[in-house]
Amino acid sequence: MKQGDIGRLILLAAIWGASFLFMRVATPYFGSLNTAFLRVLFGCVGLIALLLILRTNMAFHGKALPAMLLGVINSAVPFVMYCLAAKWLPAGYSAILNATTPLMGVLIGGLCFSETFTLRKMVGVVLGLAGIVLLTTTGSLALAQDVLLGIAACLVATACYASAGFLTKKWIGDRGGLDARLVALGSQIGASLFLLPVFIGSLIVQPVLQWNHPGVWLCVLALGLICTAWAYILFFRLIADIGPLRTLTVTFLIPPFGILWGYLFLGETLSKGFIAGGLVIIAAVWLVAGGTPKPQIKEVVIKS
Questions:
Q1: Has residue 272 got a pLDDT over 60?
Q2: pTM of the prediction?
Q3: Does residue 22 carry a pLDDT above 90?
């Protein structure tokens, strides 16, 4: 890879690692559902603006509905799950648990999409589960009910990401493909429409929220415009320049940045058990993804 490609890969990991920091800050003030909705809404607005600037032809060729449904699976539900997790888990924990997406891909692909189980992949899955146990039993957090709920929410999110990858191939790629930027836009439109009634309902039934915090609004705007819209553009450019397999190595770089931002800006502590568990999970992801042949894909689903 060229130095510029490496720099953009590191930048992308830093952006997605920061998303856990922003959710951790915004959720206590705006609530989980509202933060998730505002993220996809601003991400949608940002993508529309970028595509207009790039003068992209926004013709979906009959694939608008599948793209919108993918947005529910790949954005709406995972973003809600991570915002819920942000109430109970430090940003570093969520960032490391996000790296279990390839492990979920092995399980879901084998159980639901006729993907082949290999010894290397199965060892990776077992090692990943061991890493999660190590992370949650020897880390700095007490293993309380709220912590377990936060971990479960993160794993639901990664299961959605893994499922969306297979469904994208089935719904979009196997039907002739579609410009990845349009898949991104359609997914954010679908996620916004899905979460809109939930957002309205939460405003009605919840007590008065603390909206008058400019710093929190900056975090939400950063989630939508930087961690969603701009990150999509960076990701797609990297795929075009260095290929999908090398681009997916960003998965390994996100946890260190998530831990670093939480440590620097939120005062989150780092324990030996936390670091050991994180390293075991990253090793498991390497076992699952490292020996995979370069896939022939037409579209890629974003994970953050």
A1: yes
A2: 0.83
A3: yes
pLDDT at 45 over 90: yes
The CA distance from 249 to 271, in Å, is 25
Alpha helices in 87-213 (DSSP H): 91-98, 101-112, 119-138, 145-171, 180-205
Please, which contacts does 112-115 make with residues 24 or more away whose CB atoms are closer than 8 Å?
112/163, 112/166, 113/166
Q: How far apart are CA 292 and CA 286, in angstroms?
A: 10
Length of the chain: 304
Mean pLDDT of all residues in the chain?
A: 84
pLDDT the model gives residue 99: 80
Would you list the DSSP string of 28-48? Answer: HHH-HHHHHHHHHHHHHHHHH
Q: How far apart are CA 242 and CA 15, in angstroms?
A: 19
3-state helix, strand, coil in the chain (%, to 5): 80, 0, 20
